[in-house]
Design goal:
The chain is mainly beta. Helix content is about 5%, strand content about 20%. The chain folds into three domains: about 25-110, no CATH class; about 110-185, 3-Layer(bba) Sandwich (Hepatocyte Growth Factor), CATH 3.50.4.10; about 190-265, Hepatocyte Growth Factor, CATH 3.50.4. GO terms for molecular function: metal ion binding; monooxygenase activity.
Length: about 270
Amino acid sequence: HKSVGGSDQMYMTPFVCNVTNVRGDAKPIDYSNAQPPRRCDNGQPCVKGPKVPMYWMQKEGNNMPEIGNTQSAPIYNSNYGFQEGAQNDIFVGGNSNNNGTNNGGSNNGGNTQLGSVDQNTDRSGQDMPNMPIQASNVGDCQSKCYNNQDCQSWAFDSCGTNCWLKNGQPTAGGGGCRTSGTINGRGGNNNNSGSFGPIQTGDRPGNDLDLVKAANVQDCQQKCLARQGCGSYAWDTCGNSWCWLKTGQPGLDTSVGCRQSGVVNK
């Protein structure tokens, strides 16, 4: 519920079930292809198939773009693809993510809602420690990167099962047996060049002066420059075009997803 009810909150109650009398033709839940849900009562398609829990306004990291008091809290209902009754599309063999009807395309082949997916393309270098890890397919490798806040890009061995997570965005180049991509909102090795100061990946919570719409992060930076009393800003990288203008220079918080921010040099 919204803050008018006391605070911004959402709930999910997990259950541990002991399933008995299982039918011989029963299929397991398709965990490896689970995706974050997305709001779909606004003309956007719902995410089909199994879904991971929604993480919202968490210090440790988030997978939902609805942040702060500008939008309603995400809810486990039909607005986010959770229909009434049994969720029959969550099982292996019945998961519509596997036939390309998922939001952004087939999950096995990657989800373009999360970032770019480039076939026959490698991104060499800037590997995170202990790489490679194992992934069942392109979508699984991409999801492992998305669910790691330090991962900005990834590469998958499409002739095998190796998956490389990367803490930067190395230059894309041709590569046989490779599919790779970047994660939206985590670009530029945490320090992009802006016209009026560095643009960094992360939020700057607090000190809000105003909330406006901006075409992109550079436009948000420009609006802060033109606004009296604005010393820093934050921009929503997940497609909602929100730009927070801020007084002073609150500290950078890299644990918040869907954000780029910076301090304006006036």
